[in-house]
Write a structure and sequence with these properties.
The protein contains ten helices and seven strands.
């Protein structure tokens, strides 16, 4: 990978910059987990969310008839979880923050947290926060709750520009929980995510 490409990834938030010339290792690991298929192209944001809806057995009525038909066919042809991870990676940009303990209850009210219990990961519920927020709300949330960008912080916000009412519905499905888990740096959590996604693809076919 060229230096220019690495800088572009940091600028878009795909990987996290600690300081000038320094990139957070965990953000690189997470990025690599979603890039296992090399140069496979990612779907556009609304298409990626459409794939989530279809795999979860829900309607993706924001897609046109032709686009929905092509997406269904693409999903039927997918046999590798890594391919699915790569194609859906642009559903959100991952940002990590440090937050004061007093801000955490407010964050839990705002953030749409994926349903890890659907994966049997009940012990994944801890003092950390990992969930989705609307891109239009990120600056306000960061300012009002005094969040500070920190690659090793306990707050992971998955920022999306997609219709957030739709996101709230989809985040409660096991598909989103599995997609998030499958890019975890924890091997056990990652394994659970991969297994659930493999089962989802098989059921869809």
């Amino acid at each position: 990978m060229s230096t220019r490409h690495a800088r572009r990834l940091a600028d878009t938030g795909a990987i996290s910059r600690i300081a000038r010339g320094l990139i957070d290792q965990r953000s690189v690991d997470r990025y690599l987990q979603s890039q296992r298929m090399g140069r496979t192209r990612a779907w556009a944001e609304h298409t990626a969310w459409g794939a989530v809806a279809m795999l979860a057995g829900l309607d993706a009525d924001w897609l046109g008839t032709t686009q929905a038909s092509r997406l269904r066919q693409s999903l039927r042809e997918l046999t590798e979880v890594d391919d699915l991870l790569t194609r859906t990676r642009d559903r959100a940009q991952v940002r990590t923050f440090e937050a004061h303990r007093a801000a955490l209850p407010c964050l839990r009210e705002i953030v749409a947290v994926s349903n890890t219990r659907a994966l049997g990961l009940t012990d994944a519920v801890n003092s950390n926060i990992d969930g989705y927020v609307a891109a239009s709300d990120l600056d306000t949330i960061s300012r009002d709750l005094s969040l500070r960008a920190d690659p090793s912080g306990p707050v992971t916000l998955r920022v999306t520009g997609f219709d957030f009412e739709q996101v709230r519905v989809l985040v409660d499905t096991s598909v989103i929980a599995a997609l998030d888990a499958a890019t975890s740096t924890d091997p056990r959590v990652r394994g659970v995510g991969h297994r659930v996604l493999a089962e989802s693809l098989k059921a869809f076919r």
